[in-house]
Structures are given as structure tokens and as C-alpha cells.
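Query structure, 92 C-alpha cells:
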């Protein structure tokens, strides 16, 4: 949620095979870190993006190219060491 609050990047979420109303309730209860959230109810988007398991985090540049993929829970260490350094690259 810190990235959204600090306005460093735009963060989008995709609910994978979740009931959209249940996903909204979950995000409202626990805090919604996303600027916008989509629903992949049948898993097709995940297949197209090459998702192996959830959660996964993607860094996408201004042209829509995936420049980094993190598989698993996004820890503070992964955020600091792997993802934040990419932001200067993808925003140029």
C-alpha cells in the first residue's frame, strides 16, 4: 500500500479466479493497495501473462512490456532490492 500512498507508481491488481464481489469485500476489509483492480474470473489473463502461481508481481514499462516478474509474496526485501530500482528505468 505504501507505493500507492506515496504516488511512486500506478499499481494495478488482477483478482485471479475470485468472485468479484468477494474480492472487493476482502480488499475493503484488509486495505486496497491498488489504483484499479480487474477480474480474471476464468484464468485466461493469467495464462496469457504466463502466471505459474499466485501471487505474482509484474513491472510493466510505459510501452506495456513486462520488464520484471516476481513470483510469490512480495516482501519488503524484494521490493527494495528488485522492484524499486526498476522504476527509474520504466518511467523514462
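Result returned for the query:
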Amino acid at each position: 500500500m505504501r507505493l500507492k500512498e506515496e504516488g511512486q507508481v500506478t499499481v494495478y491488481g488482477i483478482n485471479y479466479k475470485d468472485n468479484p464481489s468477494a474480492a472487493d469485500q476482502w480488499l475493503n476489509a484488509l486495505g486496497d493497495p491498488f489504483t484499479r483492480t480487474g477480474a480474471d474470473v476464468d484464468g485466461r489473463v493469467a495464462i496469457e501473462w504466463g502466471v505459474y502461481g499466485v501471487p505474482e508481481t509484474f513491472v510493466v514499462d510505459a510501452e506495456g512490456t513486462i520488464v520484471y516478474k516476481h513470483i510469490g509474496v512480495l516482501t519488503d526485501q524484494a521490493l527494495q532490492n528488485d522492484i524499486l530500482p526498476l522504476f527509474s528505468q520504466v518511467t523514462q
